[in-house]
UniProtKB/TrEMBL annotation:
DNA bind region: 58-77
Protein keywords: DNA-binding, Transcription, Transcription regulation
The keyword DNA-binding is assigned to this record: yes
Source species, domain of life: Bacteria
Coiled coil: none
GO MF annotation: an example: transcription cis-regulatory region binding
UniProt keyword Cell inner membrane, yes or no: no
Protein's name according to its UniProt entry: TetR family transcriptional regulator
HTH tetR-type domain segment(s): 35-95
Length: 238
């Protein structure tokens, strides 16, 4: 190769590297924004993962679901794995929000326990099979596992702190709160994740049963429990 050819090739390689880096910076900027196009892609990804599972979902299917192209997908997301991680983060945000109640300090602990149990179960229902898929992928994908484990740790710690603090005088737990919160959380995640498409009355029965189990495990006084619609007043607490 002659010297001019070498110089031209070097210039081409250098320019190509610069262009590639510039493109990657542009992609990174788009990935970090919460614009409507990225939001549409993540909505489409969540729907595909929920309906088809992880293995059957492809970048092409996500792009088609979002009514866009494969190159557009890659302009906002590096891969299917990154899309799944972003969907996982969204689901985790929704689940964590169920612990946030207005005026929680002024509410009786039984009311807080019932409200947060119902909100958490309904949030799992709303995400369909995604929660079960995330729970499964957490053991395979380290990035998903880190996000999922961090969420569970935060929620369990906050729940146990509440049971050991503000609620302590109103409950008589059957086991240390740190262990109970893990058990109760697992029961909702595993149970509600299977009932995302179940009839409303089935989901409602699950929530009711979960609340009753939570009350029994935490030793909520029978007279503090809500009366079931149409229930015999004399049967309360039995």
């Amino acid at each position: 190769m002659t010297a001019p050819q070498t110089q031209r090739r070097s210039a081409f390689v250098s320019t190509g590297a610069v262009t590639s880096a510039a493109q990657e910076r542009a992609r990174a900027g788009r990935r970090e924004t919460a614009g409507p196009r990225r939001a549409d892609l993540l909505t489409a990804a969540a729907a595909c993962f929920e309906e088809l599972g992880y293995a059957a979902t492809t970048v092409e299917l996500i792009a088609a679901r979002a009514q866009t192209s494969r190159p557009t997908f890659y302009a906002y997301l590096r891969s299917k794995d990154e899309a799944f991680l972003a969907v996982t983060e969204q689901v985790c945000d929704r689940l964590e929000a169920t612990q946030q109640l207005d005026r929680i300090e002024s509410l009786p602990p039984p009311t807080v326990l019932r409200a947060t149990t119902r909100a958490f179960a309904e949030a799992v229902f709303a995400t369909g099979s995604l929660v079960a898929l995330i729970d499964s992928r957490a053991g395979i994908d380290p990035a998903v596992g880190e996000v999922w484990s961090a969420l569970r740790h935060r929620m369990n710690r906050r729940y146990a702190h509440y049971l050991s603090g503000p609620a302590a005088g109103s409950i008589d737990p059957c086991a240390p709160p740190e262990r109970l919160v893990v058990m109760l959380g697992d029961a909702i995640i595993r149970g509600a994740a299977r009932l995302g498409r179940a009839p409303e009355e089935v989901r409602e029965q699950f929530v009711d049963d979960q609340i009753r189990m939570t009350e029994r495990c935490l030793g909520v006084a029978a007279d503090a429990r809500p009366r079931r619609h149409g229930a015999d007043p004399d049967a309360q607490g039995t």
